[in-house]
Amino acid sequence: MQESLGLGSYETAWTWLHKLRRAMVRPGRDRLTGRVEVDETYLGGLEEGVRGRKSQKKALIAVAAEEDGEGIGRIRMRRIPDASAHSLEAFVWEAVAPGSLLHTDGLLSYDRLEKRGYQHRITFLKGRRESPAELLPRVHRVVSLLNRWLLGTHQGAVSHAHLDYYLDEFTFRFNRRTSRHRGKLFYRLVEQALAVGPAPYTSLVKHVSSGWQHQRRQHHHS
Q: Which 3-state string (H, E, C) describes the chain?
């Protein structure tokens, strides 16, 4: 982007990209409906030597993917602090409309979803020949594509502080992957940019002042 627009510094390009990412979530956007797979995972997989769903460095994210026949409809994803019922219920409520049929694994944190107005189908992974990717194929496909995008496009140089905005960008792109009208996508992004609040550079780097410096080093090494 810096080269294409002739911007004077990497910091300016970095700031513009983050401003655009913050406009990729439309205020009041529709929630997912129908049959929806939901799962949580660590980006890049669990760390070596770390058991269960705990991790010291990896980011835990929740993913929801609409079932569209054998394929994938729209998606939603969000970083969550833990795999507790409180965190996962909050994500589901934000991402999926009540009345939808949720398909999850047997994690106890999902047990109270029916009380929130959802239908709930559980697939227990223990004792099954199929892998988790086969039992919940859509969310695992989405996570695989996300990891490939983060490692390929961004070379893994994404800080935890800004991760949610990269997830928003990936979601924006994925949900519009079949659009034939690229100009309309640009128009929609500009339209949404007018509907969100300002994001000055100082607020972007307040807690991660070294974030762009790390990304710049990665960029120069590529």
A: CHHHHCCCCHHHHHHHHHHHHHCCCCCCCCCECCEEEEEEEECCCCCCCCCCCCCCCCCEEEEEEEEECCEEEEEEEEECCCCCHHHHHHHHHHHECCCCEEEECCCHHHCCHHHHCCEEEECCCCCCCCCHHHHCHHHHHHHHHHHHHHHHCCCCCCCHHHHHHHHHHHHHHHHCCCCCCHHHHHHHHHHHHCCCCCCCHHHHCCCCCCHHHHHHHHHHHC
Closest by Cα among 85, 97, 78, 84 to 36: 97
Side-chain half-sphere of 120: how many Cα atoms within 13 Å?
20
Q: Which residue(s) pair with 96 in the sheet?
A: 32
- Tell me: the pLDDT tens digits for 124-180? 866 565 566 678 999 999 999 998 888 876 665 677 777 888 898 899 889 888 877
Q: Are 209 and 203 in contact (CB under 8 A)?
A: no
Q: What is the pLDDT at residue 126? A: 65
Instruction: Supply 51's token pair.
Output: 């058991």
Is the pLDDT at 48 greater than 50, yes or no?
no
pLDDT of residue 210: 44
Query: What is the overall mean pLDDT for the chain?
Result: 80
Q: Which residue has the tokens 């194929």?
A: 137
Token pair of 8 as six digits: 């004077």
